[in-house]
Structure formats: C-alpha cells, structure tokens
Amino acid sequence: xxxxxxxxxxxxxxxxxxxxxxxxxxxxxxxxxxxxxxxxxxxxxxxxxxxxxxxxxxxxxxxxxxxxxxxxxxxxxxxxxxxxxxxxxxxxxxxxxxxxxxxxxxxxxxxxxxxxxxxxx
Length: 121
Known about the structure:
Helices cover 93% and strands 0% of the residues. The chain has one domain (6-120).
C-alpha cells in the first residue's frame, strides 16, 4: 500500500531517471561528434600527405627528365664538336669525363632531393 510519503520519492526517482536518460543521450551525441571530427581530421591529414607525396614525386620526375635531356644534349653536342672540329682523343676524353662528372653531380643532387622529400614526408 502506498502512502503519501512514498509518492514524492517515486516522483523524484522518475525525474532522476529522466535526467539520467538525457545525460546518456547527450554523452552519446558528444562521443559521436568527437569520433566524426577525429575521423575527418585523419582523412584530411592523409589527403594532405598524399598530395605532398604526389607533388614531390612529380617535381623529382621533372628534374630527372630535365637532367637526362641536358646530359644527352651535352653528349650529342660534344660528339658533334669532336667530329666537326676533329680535335684529338685527349680532348674528347676530357670532355666526356666532364660530362660524366656533371652526371655524378646531378645524381648527388637528386639523392639530396630524395632525402629532403623523405624527411618532409
């Protein structure tokens, strides 16, 4: 049998249950929002890293192509000059050594660029 003293306690219990349900819903919504924000941040970071990698790789490829074209053009010019002018073997060897040194310097530069891009990434 319920008495008058039991009714307010029951009402307080029901109000507390309502407040607990509201708190649970708010916490769940906040957790969902935080998870969405974290996932979005991770996706943005991944996209930025991919863009940086693509840009660095494209730049390195362009540098490699330019270097190859310049070295091949220099070798062709050296051969044409050697054939047309008719200089001796010593001059031809010296010019070829200079071209090879240029290739070595370019390769060292590319290694530095790759090392820098790996550090940036």
